[in-house]
């Protein structure tokens, strides 16, 4: 009996959410105020987000000063990563962590729509050359089963729709369940990611954009870029919601 009520409740909640989004204009996912333009965030919360104002063109790490375009960080100048260009929206602060956490564990639809469309805006506003396809960072099958969806794929969808670019979910597989990167130094992280992915189908694209929720270190992006380039792709970009320093 209890179970039936739970099912009814969750059905009711889902139906209610759908009805609300159809009947009412977008509402802020953070505070419930009316949404800015067509987004599920209000003007106040939008401006309060930890936007990265100036960043390294190649790895998107936030840079302190506004020194114009064509800027790379010291790390990329010393030893360039394998990927070519990055776009990231937020510094990895508490607010950004909350948004990404909710994308992964709460209402994935509202959050992927919001975060994906904000990422699409940033790509548009920065005149980023569009790729031939978007490649969400694949999850290992056990993780996918546990979560039920891949948050990177959910983020990629609104971007793909906006620019009319295909999403590639078949060419690359995560073949190893990598341990958490937390607490590992740079060298250990690189080692941890080695052989984590495999290109399992030929990719015809010349230019690919990898989409990830958070770029903590660049080891995941770098490993993906490495195998994609080995498979003949010329340019690999990395698009993410948050960039940890
Ligand atoms: Zn708000
Ligand atoms: Zn950099």
Supply the key terms:
245 residues, alpha/beta, four-stranded parallel sheet, two-stranded antiparallel sheet, 9 helices, globular, binds zinc ion
Radius of gyration: 19 Å
Low-confidence stretches: none
Distance between the termini: 50 Å
> Care to count the β-strands?
6
Shape designation = globular
Strand content: 5-15%
How would you characterize the overall build of this protein?
The protein has helices at residues 2-23, 43-48, 74-78, 94-105, 108-125, 141-147, 151-163, 186-193, 219-230, and strands at 85-91, 133-136, 172-174, 197-199, 207-215, 235-243. The longest helix is centred in the N-terminal third of the chain and has 22 residues, at 2-23. Helix 4 (94-105) packs across helix 5 and helix 5 crosses helix 7 (151-163). The model has no long low-confidence stretch (mean pLDDT 86). It has a 4-stranded parallel beta sheet. It has a two-stranded antiparallel ribbon with strand order 3-4. It is of the alpha/beta class. The chain binds zinc ion (2 copies). One zinc ion binds next to helix 3. One zinc ion is lined by residues 28, 30-31, 33, 41-42, 44-45.
